Write the structure tokens for this entry.
Amino acid sequence: MMFCGRGMMDMLLKNKEVDFYQIKSVSLGRLSPNNVSGFFWGGFVLSTVTTIVAFAGISTEISTFMTLMVLLSLFLWVFQFFFTLFFTMRKIAYKFQRLLSVYLSLIGFKVSIDFYQAFFGVCEVFNSPSYIKTTGTILFLGGIILLIISTMRAVRRVKQGELRKEGRGLYNFQNSKGYVSVPIIFGVTMLGGAAARFFSDMSTDITALAILFFAVLLQYSVAMALPEFFLLTYCKFRFESFKVKMPK
């Protein structure tokens, strides 16, 4: 993975500012310092809800995994609150744009996996069978792999000139049907297998499986969009022109 990251960075360094035209347009529009606070607060609300649900999994016989997960969730929730509040202040958002872009990428990733803490919390509450937890873990790892593939694809599209002014953009999947269909097939197959086993034993509560469905849907969807955040962060550090001036 380290060599993969190094290789992608080397590829990006060969590109010029003109190759990131569409990322620059986004940095002046929906991902400008003035517009991202709404996303931050939306992410914070989601994190609050999932953290509360995760706390529901605490019991007198709490596992080591749940203890560590809840403590980490609480720490990240406090971290998220203060930085979201920090970047809500307009002058600070414009002054620290590089740090803002890093935070945007981090929160984008966190939002994509937040539902999993609720999933594991509910699994503890209802004492869900091990196969449901295993399915959730495998699907979570599948989403991480999809994110890596999405990032590699985004870097390749930069190299191909697709993010120039005349390019087809980052999200043109016309020639990438396998890239879109494989994760869908994988997710549906895993969830379908878990659902089939669940319906053969109706004594198990369906809540965990329902939350897992939304967790996978959110993670896999965001995994396809996150590379845009990563590229914006990269450009903020590399090109001075990506620093947006604060409107008077």
User: Anything to note?
Assistant: The chain has a mean pLDDT of 84. The radius of gyration is 20 Å. The chain has one domain: 21-242.
